[in-house]
Amino acid sequence: MSLTTVPGAPIWIELYTSDPAGAQRFYADLFGWSAETAGPEYGGYVTFHRAGEPVAGCMLNDGTTGGVNSWSVYLESNDVEATVGMAEANGGQIEIEPMQVGTLGHMAFVIDPAGARIGIWQPDSMTGFAVRGAVGAPGWFEVLSTDFAAAVPFYENVFGWSTHPMSDTDEFRYTTLGKDDLALAGVMDASRFASNSAWSVYVEVADTDATVAAAVAGGGSVLAAAEDTPVGRLAELADPSGAVFKVMGPTGA
């Protein structure tokens, strides 16, 4: 079963990359992830495991879609077709129509009114990541939105989010799915500094600075240097294929 019964909570993260083999080496060295490759009926899909438990997926970007190498977030749905219908009714666009993925579940991709793409997963046998908030596992998920006023009601109406403003100033406007220690994801007003809306994936680490150094040694790059914040020491990185992700660890480490 999934980790939470909160409607629309993040349930899975997935890497879309032109170099799955290189990604397996990079993330094994960085987070200690092992990799399991599915059969041809699933297109050679790779599942990353932390201590034997699934935490993320990886699929080949063969260049035919025009999509860039990237990390994606999936939100849980108990009816993917109904969720896609609600997305359209609330100003979203369909990127990938609902489809069955073997016995694992049903998926779709939509684009929210501000332009951020988001996966939808209706689980069957594959119930998402088995751990979150632990070192080497997904820790946080947020959408940086260039249209905050459109994004928040979209996620409320389409995914059933119960949102709670954390800050509402021009300098920092942020709302969360859930409240305080029970928060599961966030929406940030990025209109002052971003040209595009996008979801971000954070992975928990024991030492942010050591992880940054290891990423660079493994061929990755630093997009935003490690910095202490009220929620931990954060950094933004890109893997060798250019896929962007973030890490979060304790302050002072």
From TrEMBL:
SUPFAM superfamilies: Glyoxalase/Bleomycin resistance protein/Dihydroxybiphenyl dioxygenase
Transmembrane spans: none
InterPro entries referenced in this protein's UniProt entry, alphabetically: Anthracycline_SecMetBiosynth, Glyas_Bleomycin-R_OHBP_Dase, Glyas_Fos-R_dOase_dom, Glyoxalase_6, VOC_core
Residue ranges that the Swiss-Prot or TrEMBL entry lists as coiled coil: none
Cross-referenced PROSITE patterns: VOC
Domain (VOC): residue spans on this chain: 9-123, 137-250
One Pfam family from the record: Glyoxalase_6
PANTHER family assigned to the protein according to its UniProt record, in alphabetical order: CONSERVED PROTEIN (PTHR33993:SF10), GLYOXALASE-RELATED (PTHR33993)
Protein name: Unannotated protein
Source taxonomy: unclassified sequences, metagenomes, ecological metagenomes
